[in-house]
Specification:
It is built from one helix and no strands. By secondary structure, it is mainly alpha-helical.
């Protein structure tokens, strides 16, 4: 019976850990997407400069 009383706390800690893991993963993914957009913007600028160059 003693183990049963600790069960919800253990599952709650697993839930919190999973939430933190997912939040950090989402943050990393969003940062990667933002960097990818920045790289594409810079590539477009560079391509424009090369086309304008004599």
């Amino acid at each position: 019976m003693e183990q049963l009383a600790h069960g919800p706390f253990i599952w709650a800690s697993y839930g919190i850990a999973a939430g933190v893991f997912l939040a950090l993963g989402l943050r990393s993914w969003l940062r990667a997407k933002a960097l990818e957009a920045e790289v594409e913007k810079l590539r477009a600028q560079t391509a424009g400069r090369r086309a304008a160059a004599p």
